[in-house]
């Protein structure tokens, strides 16, 4: 693991959720027109949800590296598996993984926190990764996001401190080993 994150690899901000069967949302692949909504979700999550674990200066520093819509579009159009959770046709959360299983973003709009969105996204990512024969998922989880990752079977590898815009922040390297899918087993599409 790297000791200091690149500013281009922000960490996830979500809260503990428990999946429900009556969630009223769906998970689908990213579409280019989602990028503006996802940038707003990122900012809203940091401004609202992360305040439980980070002070004003830390939030400001974190927001200084928030991706613009063009950044999200470029990142997701470069080949990452990118998923969007939507309710009533509007994005309410998003996540992704690369070919090695690294999750760059896991964000949920504050109005939809604690409703299973982050957990649903993590489950869909896990299925996607297994179908791609990826052996583990990794991420850098914020203090706010750590409980949702651990609830869904990730283990905390290490606490990491780093400086953004002159302010010390911390997050946690997390990892989940995935069970291989038997070649004879039917593979469930994570978006079905």
List keywords for this structure.
192 residues, alpha+beta, four-stranded mixed beta sheet, 8 strands
Topology of helices and strands:
Blueprint: E1 26-29, H1 35-48, H2 56-63, H3 69-77, E2 81-87, E3 90-97, E4 102-103, E5 106-108, H4 117-131, E6 136-141, H5 146-151, E7 155-164, E8 167-177
Helix pairs in contact: 1-3
Characterization of this structure:
The longest helix is centred in the middle third of the chain and has 15 residues, at 117-131. The protein is globular and about 50 Å long. It has 192 residues and is an alpha+beta fold. α1 packs across α3 (69-77). It has helices at residues 35-48, 56-63, 69-77, 117-131, 146-151, and strands at 26-29, 81-87, 90-97, 102-103, 106-108, 136-141, 155-164, 167-177. β7 and β8 (167-177) form a beta hairpin. The chain has a four-stranded antiparallel β-sheet, sandwiched between helices. It has one domain: Aminopeptidase, CATH 3.40.630.
- Sheet with most strands: strand arrangement: 1-2-3-5
CATH class, named Alpha Beta
For the biggest sheet, the summary is: 4 strands, antiparallel
Assign the CATH architecture: 3-Layer(aba) Sandwich
